[in-house]
Amino acid sequence: MSEFSWTQLARIVSTREQDPPNPTHDEVVRFFTELRTPLLRYLYTLGLPLSEGEDVAQETFLALHRHLLEGKPRDNLHGWVFRVARNLALKRLQRAATTGGEPDFHDLTDPAPNPEQQAVRTQQQRAIQSVIAALPDLDRQCLYLRAEGLRYRDIAQALDISLGSVAQALSRALDKLARAAQR
């Protein structure tokens, strides 16, 4: 690093040390660190390309920061984050549909296995994807959110449905996946 860079770094550190502690900022940073990757995966399952998912995630965490600064409720923020991200993603997808844009889906196969393993894996993925694609939208959304580690209560809040509806949707989805795996 040049002397100029070290001077800039020293100025930034000294300024940061003089800043009063900001618990809201620290809480948002903690949520960002914890939820960014699961949130991006979830947004991808909704049909957003990674670049748009990054934008939606950024908008979501900015909304979280505003939410906390305004002193709004802090209970179940995990579910709140996924719900806001879902709503923002659906708005983007609707905009893309009305302007003629298509969601960008990629084949997520792993290139490392040998050809035989690759063929078996591809066949299994297609079978699972076809079962998931055939699920009702609610069942599919519940399954994706559960796969991201959200609890039933968080899923219910994110999708604005009852806990019983979450349990039923997940039960149906898992039963169908189990039957497909036995074939």
From TrEMBL:
Origin superkingdom: Bacteria
SUPFAM superfamilies the UniProt entry points to: Sigma2 domain of RNA polymerase sigma factors (SSF88946), Sigma3 and sigma4 domains of RNA polymerase sigma factors (SSF88659)
Every HTH luxR-type domain range: 149-176
Keywords noted in UniProt: DNA-binding, Sigma factor, Transcription, Transcription regulation
Pfam families cross-referenced by the UniProt entry: Sigma70_r2 (PF04542), Sigma70_r4_2 (PF08281)
UniProt family annotation: Belongs to the sigma-70 factor family. ECF subfamily.
Protein name per the record: Sigma-70 family RNA polymerase sigma factor
Source organism: Paludibaculum fermentans
